[in-house]
Amino acid sequence: MWSLMGIGGLGFWFRRWDTSAYLHSWCSVPCPSRLSLSRTYSIKSSLIGSATGLCLGQCCRIKPLSCKCKLGRSSQPPPDSRQHFSASSSASEAVLTAQSDIRKLFVANEKIGVLLLNLGGPETLDDVQPFLFNLFADPDIIRLPRAFRFLQKPLAQFISVARAPKSKEGYASIGGGSPLRQITDAQGEALMEALCGKDIPAKVYVGMRYWHPFTEEAIEQIKKDGITKLVVLPLYPQFSISTSGSSLRLLESIFREDEYLVNMQHTVIPSWYQREGYIKAMATLIEKELLKFPKPQKVMIFFSAHGVPLAYVEEAGDPYKAEMEECVDLIMEELEKRGMANPSTLAYQSRVGPVEWLKPYTDETIIALGQRGVKSLLAVPISFVSEHIETLEEIDVEYKELALQSGIKHWGRVPALGCEPTFISDLADAVIESLPYVGAMAVSNLEARQSLVPLGSVEELLATYDSKRDMLPPPVIVWEWGWTKSAETWNGRAAMLAVLALLVLEVTTGQGLLHQWGILPPLP
Ligand SMILES: C=CC1=C(C)c2cc3[nH]c(cc4nc(cc5[nH]c(cc1n2)c(C)c5CCC(=O)O)C(CCC(=O)O)=C4C)c(C)c3C=C
Ligand SMILES: [Fe+2]
Hints:
By secondary structure, this protein is α/β, with parallel strands linked by helices.
C-alpha cells in the first residue's frame, strides 16, 4: 500500500522586471546589454540531447543498440557511467556551437525563466501537521489501490496527525522549523547571479511540492512575468518517482489545465548527479572534512542517502538506486584521482511506514561497521543539496550517537552543498546547456523519447517513467516465522488495513473518533 526582443532590448526588459517575495530579484551583477554571440559551449553533461545526433547520455546506457548518439554508436560495449563522465567531459568530443540557438532564443524576444523544484518544509511548528498532510496526500508518496483513492486525504489526515508530535520534536530541536526555504531561496539568488555572470539573464523561481512557496504560486508568478521559455530544474541530484517525479507530475497537471502554460516552451533537467561540477564540488567537501580526522587515510566514507520503498525501484522502475550508486562511484573515482583511496559504503536512511525500504539501512550499517572495528566514520548526505531535518537531526544527532555507542571513535559529517560556488556554477551551466532544447524535444527528437531520462517536456518525462500510471504492486516479501522484519512488515500492513477499515466506516457512517475529534467533517 505504501509506495513520494531584440538583443539590445533584452537588458531593458530584465531591468524592468518586478520582484516579489518568492521570486528572485535580478542579479546585482550588471547584465550585459549585448550578448556575446560568438559564444560556444561543449556538451559536458550526458543530460544534453540534440537534434544533430550528439550524445543523449542515458540512451546509450539504457538502449545501447538502438542509441544513435556518438558514444552509443561506437563499436565498444555500452559505455558505463565512468566512460560517459570522462568522455562527456572532453570538450573535443562533443562541441556544440550554440550561437544560432542562443541567437534564436533572444532575437525572438524571449523571456527565460528557471523553475527550481524542491520539497519544501514547515517554517514553524504549527506548519508541521499541515506540511505532513500535504506530503502524505501525495499519491507518489502513499499509493493506494485505485478503489481506495477516495481515502487518500482522510488517510493523510490520520497519518499526519499521528506523526506530527514526533516530527515537531525533530523540527523543534533544529530551531523550530525547516531551513529549506531560506537555503533554496539563496541557491536561487546564487544561480541567477551565476547565469547573469555567464551572459544569460534569466529569472529564477522556487516551487516547493509540500509547503510555501508552492509550485502553483511560482507558476502564477511565471505567468504574470510572461515567461516564454522555462527550464525546469529539480534540486534533487538523483531522480526518484517520490521527489522529482512527484513535482514533475504536479507540474504536468498544472500545465495541462492552462492555455498559457500549454503554449509556453519548456525543458526539464531530470537529474544531474553525474555532472562534473557537482561531482567535483562533492569531492572537495569530502576532502576538506577528511583532513579534520587524526588519520584521514583510515576514515570510512559513509554515504547516507534518503531511502525510498523498495517497490519503487523493483516494481515501478525508479532509477533512484542506480543513479545513487553511479553517483557514489563517480565521487569516489574523483577522490581517487586526487590521491585519496579511502574505503566507502552507501546506505539508506529515514524510512517511514511498514514496508521494506532500500537497503542497507543507515542505522544497521553503522552498527555493523562498529562491530567490524571501523573507528573513524565520515557521513556524507548524498541525496539532497541543502541542510534539512534529516542532516541536522537524524545524522548529526541520532546517527552520531549510534556510531559512538557502536564503538566508532571519530565522527565527522560533510555539509550539504548549499551555495557552494563550483556547484552553483555547474547548475548554471546545466541550465545554459539545456536552453537550445527548450521546446524542441517534444516535437523532434526521437532519441529523447528512447532515453531513460529524456531532456524533454514534463509530459514525455513522466510518460517514460510511469506511462501506465499504475499503482505500485506490493513489495515482494519473503515470509519468515518469528519476530522478524517480515513479521513487523505484516503487522504494519495489518495495522494499516485496520486503519483503512476504520476510515471506511467513519466516512460511510459519519461516526467515530476522527469525527469526534473534528478531524473529519460531519456528513451533510
Ligand atoms: C531525495 C530525497 C528524498 C526522498 C527520496 C524522499 C522520499 C520520501 N520521504 C518520505 C517521507 C518524509 N520525508 C520527510 C522530509 C523530507 N524528505 C526529504 C527528502 C526526500 N524524501 C527532505 C529533504 C525532507 C526534509 C524537509 C525539511 O523540512 O527539512 C518527512 C517529514 C519529516 C519527518 O517527519 O520525518 C516525511 C514524513 C517518504 C514516505 C518518501 C518516499 C516514498
Ligand atoms: Fe522524505
